[in-house]
Design brief:
single chain; alpha+beta; 8 domains; 23 helices; about 35% helix
């Protein structure tokens, strides 16, 4: 069919062809007009290796080569080729930017092919750079070297005012994108971004090598570009153009797609709203400023009756570096114990330390209290033991504290690799403008950077009827520059998630934390909108009525049951119970939990009374200790247990959950430990096989650390006075926990020993000076510990050597005899066979004998014991004769003592 045919069909067809041609022409024209990056080269270098003549073989070879490079390069993104031979040989290379598609690459190379001949006519060597591609050719082999033959630096004339933080962020981003391009990308291409101050918001970077370079050579090529920073120091934008690799940074986005690397990335999770001017998003009692919004008031009522969450808001555990070295574990435990003790007692609530290649840090906000700091760090220590039991590096953060350790030093090192965003509740309408939030966070940033304690808190009045508070904190080991960089990342993320209805938002990282709270207040003229007034008129009387009726009900209930209640006796300090962290359980709740204290749920029985297993309605398993009416222990022991255990927090101490004092019952509620007590394993011929040497050694170490905490590192200084196998509980992983503080004695800071006429404890574990004279100290606990160590090694009871009323050899004399004869290893429990570490066992026997020496002054303190157990090389002193104590013969030869002892020889008790 002819195109000149007058038929409508032919006419339509010709118009269609015309339209398609017109559209193609317009698109091509737009490509050159709209995309200056394709029509205007960034830079051109015309080489000085010689010229070729028109119509020469070199010109012919060059034309063929450029066609090949343009064609093949657009498909692969990278291509190199050669044409001709000898003097007329031409080498060529093209590279398209890693984020371009085939179409963009083809267009860029077509423009480059045209322009390079026009801009460098008859040059035998030339290179041309565009935003999206590079083209170069030469009469010399371009591929012999992995480095750039030359580097062209181009920069923006405008400079950044905050020079040091800017350069720090640039360096961080460069390091990340260099490694990503070299080791994570087959195209040898990477992009990155990072937040920077409140003006530019973000910095963007791009790095690329030719894909034929091996990984290390690519990294080396990029690194060579930035050997000298003088070209781009503080510049708002710059490029380094090379043939083999190139680099670019700007304060605006210039590449396509999502960044390969983000200096700060986040995980977003919801968090409860906060009403008080506290550390951001902290669950706490609400103290609303002025008049609360109705929704906030209702939520406040719920918050007031809900427990705060103890889960960490940020947690890290090294996934691929677990420790199996017992020495590392011992050093770590000592370090953490030191940190959580020293930080709350320092003026800045901060501490860092190292111990035998283990490094740690503990920190609380400087405007907090030492008590809240100690409590927070203690909870973090417990969390670390649960969440990261064998990690060589770990960090965990709550709103009010940070605890971190590692097997390599991290002091003064900035970490901005990960953040978590915690979002609060939302209001029903916008509450503030972006400018208001910008100014609040900028002022908070400035105050924190200027603070020597790296902490800042700022309050601001937003548009009526809202006020806001914001706070920020860096770890105190960071320099001003590093703190600035960290805050820029955190605040950048916070503003990036800007939502003017959010009443609270927090960005949490390892090196810094930033957040804000918005509160509702009345306007300056006291006016409230009509809807709010109406709701308040309805809701407030209802709430008042509920509170009134609840008060009446509680009053009647207390009046009805007050005669049935059992109260604790007076204590030395009226605030002792108020400061405790235990709670009161209802008797009916504990009856339901334990099946009304059924025999089927009984776990065992001690001097205090029977212990029952139970399960609360929430599913939590508990152990309930019920004071027996026939028990020799009473109110004093109960008071000790409630006050002491509630204030003591350590991984090797049992945790008291609360108590019940209704009717005639006296009940203590503990965490449930599935493996019950050590004696149930140690002195059972079947279960003892579950105690291999590694578990026994872990138990020996754990008990020593628990005692060290009691004697020196806790808020209270405690002498246990009843340390024995049945008072050592075992959790699911066979970790020991010291329990039963009924006989414990509290010492003052400057007190070293005490004296009592009321001797109480367990025969076989009591130190001679305590059993005979009533003198007790930390060294009497050391004696009990020594007996316990020897029992764990031998699998035999100390008092098991007592037969009738005749004083035959006891365990201590038995061990001493074998030690002097050089046969100490024969003492080992036969169930161990030969599966033990000889040096460890001998060291434990040696330490046990040191602890049971008759002279208390020769016994080591628990700090020395912990060090002896953690160090295999430190020399040990020679032990002297143990105390071969036969209490029954000393007090009354006709009396046989074979268990718990309570001798009340008077009523006086003193310490000095």
């Amino acid at each position: 069919m002819s195109l000149l045919d007058d038929s409508p069909k032919a006419l339509n067809y010709s118009i269609s062809l015309f339209n398609k041609g017109l559209i193609a022409t317009l698109l091509l024209l737009m490509l050159f007009l709209v995309s200056p990056c394709l029509s205007e080269p960034v830079y051109t270098v015309c080489g000085n290796t010689g010229n070729y003549t028109a119509n020469s073989s070199y010109e012919s070879n060059l034309g063929t080569l450029l066609t090949s490079l343009s064609s093949n390069g657009s498909i692969r993104g990278f291509f190199n080729d050669t044409m001709g031979s000898l003097a007329d040989k031409v080498y060529g290379l093209v590279l398209c930017r890693g984020d371009t598609n085939t179409s963009m690459c083809r267009s860029c190379l077509a423009v480059a092919k045209r322009d390079i001949l026009q801009l460098c006519p008859y040059n035998k060597n030339a290179t041309i750079w565009y935003d999206y591609c590079i083209l170069c050719y030469s009469n010399q082999n371009l591929l012999l070297s992995a480095n750039n033959p030359q580097i062209i630096y181009i920069w923006n004339a405008e400079s950044i005012t905050e020079l040091a933080p800017f350069n720090k962020i640039i360096t961080k981003v460069m390091d990340y994108i260099f490694k990503w391009a070299a080791y994570n990308s087959t195209r040898r291409f990477a992009t990155g971004e990072a937040y920077f101050n409140m003006n530019f918001t973000k910095i963007y970077g791009l790095a690329q090598c030719t894909p034929d370079l091996p990984q290390d050579q690519c990294y080396g090529c990029l690194h060579e570009i930035v050997v000298s920073t003088s070209y781009f120091d503080g510049k708002r934008g710059w490029r380094a153009l090379g043939m083999r690799c190139n680099l670019r940074f700007e304060v605006y986005p210039f590449f396509e797609g999502k960044s390969s690397v983000q200096l700060a990335y986040s995980q977003q999770v919801p968090a409860p709203i906060v009403f008080e001017k506290t550390y951001p998003s902290m669950a706490h009692e609400a103290r609303p400023a002025g008049q609360l919004h109705v929704r906030a008031l209702i939520l406040f009522v719920f918050v007031a009756i809900t427990c705060a969450q103890n889960d960490p808001i940020l947690f890290y555990c090294s996934p691929d570096t677990n420790h199996t070295n017992q020495s590392f574990k011992s050093n770590l435990d000592l370090l953490l114990s030191n940190l959580i003790t020293t930080a709350p007692n320092s003026s800045s609530l901060y501490s860092n330390a190292s111990m035998h290649s283990v490094y740690g840090m503990a920190q609380c906000p400087p405007d907090g209290s030492p008590f809240s700091c100690a409590d927070c760090l203690s909870r973090l220590n417990t969390s670390l033991a649960t969440l990261c039991p064998v990690g060589r590096s770990a960090a965990v953060r709550l709103e009010l504290c940070l605890l971190r350790y590692s097997d390599h030093t991290f002091f003064s090192e900035l970490d901005v690799t990960s953040f978590k965003i915690l979002t609060g509740q939302s209001a029903s309408r916008p509450t503030y403008s972006r400018e208001e939030m910008f100014n609040l966070m900028n002022n908070t940033r400035s105050k924190t950077i200027e603070s020597k304690l790296r902490f800042g808190r700022v309050e601001a009045k937003f548009s009526d009827p809202y006020v806001a508070s914001a706070s920020a904190e860096c770890t105190r080991d960071l320099s001003t520059v590093d703190c600035t960089v960290c805050l820029d990342q955190a605040i950048g993320m916070l503003l990036n998630d800007y939502n003017n209805r959010l009443l609270g938002l927090q960005v949490v990282g390892l090196s810094c934390i930033v957040g804000y709270n918005v509160q509702f207040t009345s306007g300056t003229d006291g006016s409230v909108d009509h809807t709010t007034k109406l709701v308040l008129v309805i809701v407030l009387p209802v709430i008042a009525l509920v509170v009134l009726l609840s008060g009446i009900y509680i009053y009647l209930l207390r009046k009805r049951t007050v005669k049935k209640m059992v109260f604790l006796p007076e204590v030395e300090d009226e605030t002792e119970f108020a400061r405790g962290e235990s709670r009161l359980f209802g008797l009916n709740d504990l009856k339901d939990a334990t099946g009304n204290f059924s025999d089927a749920n009984m776990l065992g029985e001690g001097g205090f009374g029977p212990v029952y297993k139970g399960s609360l309605k929430c599913g939590q398993e508990i152990a309930v200790k019920r004071l027996s009416r026939t028990s020799g222990q009473g109110f004093l022991e109960l008071r000790n247990e409630v006050i002491f255990v509630a204030k003591l927090q350590h991984r090797n101490l049992v945790r008291l959950l609360g108590c019940c004092l209704e009717e005639k019952e006296k009940l203590l509620v503990y965490e449930y430990l599935p493996n019950t007590s050590l004696d149930k394993f140690l002195f059972d011929p079947i279960k003892i096989h579950q105690l291999d040497w590694s578990r026994r050694y872990k138990i020996i170490q754990g008990i020593s650390k628990g005692l060290l905490y009691l004697h020196e590192d806790s808020r209270l200084r405690i002498i246990h006075r009843d340390l024995k196998a049945s008072n050592i509980l075992l959790d699911g992983d066979m970790n020991p926990k010291i329990s039963d503080f009924g006989l414990a004695k509290h010492f003052g800071v400057n007190e070293t020993h005490g004296n009592t006429n009321r001797i109480a404890g367990t025969y076989g574990y009591m130190a001679p000076e305590y059993a005979i004279h009533g003198e007790f100290s930390t060294k009497s606990d050391a004696f009990s510990y020594g007996v316990l160590v020897l029992e764990i090694v031998t699998g035999r009871k100390n008092r098991g050597f007592q037969r009738g009323s005749k004083p035959v050899d006891n365990l201590l004399s038995h061990v001493w005899k074998h030690w002097n004869e050089g046969r100490a290893l024969e003492l080992r429990d036969q169930s161990l066979s030969n599966r033990f570490i000889e040096e460890q066992m001998l060291r434990c026997i040696h330490i046990g004998l040191l602890c049971v020496q008759e002279d208390p002054t020769k016994r080591p303190n628990m700090a020395s014991v912990v060090h002896m157990l953690s160090s295999d090389s430190s020399p040990l002193p020679t032990p002297s004769t143990p105390a071969f104590l036969n209490l029954s013969s000393m007090l009354n030869e006709s009396v046989e003592l074979s268990g718990d002892v309570c001798l009340d020889l008077g009523s006086s008790e003193r310490s000095s």
